[in-house]
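BACKBONE STRUCTURE TOKENS:
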Amino acid sequence: AAVPQLSRFRIDVKENGVAEIVMNRAKKLNVMDDVFFEEIGPVFDFIESSPDVNVALLWAEGRLFTAGLDLKSMGSVMGSDDDELTQRTKLLAKLKLWQTNFNRARTITKPVIAAIHGKCIGGGIDMITSCDVRLATKDASFSIKETEIGLVADLGTLQRIHRIVGSGIAREMAFTADFIDAQRALSSGFVNAVYDDQDALLAAARAMAARIAGLSPIVLQGTKIAMNFAEDHTVEDSLNQIALWNSAFLKSDDLVEAVTAFMQKRTPKFRNRL
């Protein structure tokens, strides 16, 4: 699959199976405008469809991760000349598209790591709660800012964050719009680890991504599918799902290759993927 032409992101595909998704509008604080929202979908469609990518790493250039929603773009949504019903209908369609795009990091079958530095505001929380793993710098901070600017967060934060940090902290963040710092994010399980600066953060994130990318693609995909399924189903249903999955995919070439490589003390060469 060809890397899509983008203006709000850059995608760098490494030889080790890691694709780095970089938010690259540092001068604009990586704010999220209409174009940003529309490009997220193609970004993750590429990650999912590319046979050269096993894992994605999301990070940002500049002094912070993202300042969140571009309020000018919000004005363009609300301030058209259409009658009220048409405006509301268009807004609903746009929100549904944006929700789908922001949920793509979760719904694709490949793991996604977010590496956050500086402030992560509003839509940034929507985006990183959709990722599988979050890592941060010690100066990172996180705010569900929508509440403070007269919006109910609507792109996934309120549906996902309580599963990550628990209901109490999730509701505090949502009701106050206050920032939580990196240490509180770490102690609540919102991020997995905290690093001194962005260089150390990216070094650790790249090492984790490389470790994951070296494993069997079809096993990684099956593992993410199973964990996503288990979040929305009973243990019994989830056990049934993974039994059916493994009965279909367990006899893959990758299983034989993994065992053989382990016995021979060499790096496995995997070929199977969905």
User: Anything to note?
Assistant: Residues 9-213 form a domain with the 2-enoyl-CoA Hydratase; Chain A, domain 1 fold (CATH 3.90.226.10). The mean pLDDT is 92. The chain has twelve helices and nine strands. The longest strand covers residues 18-23.
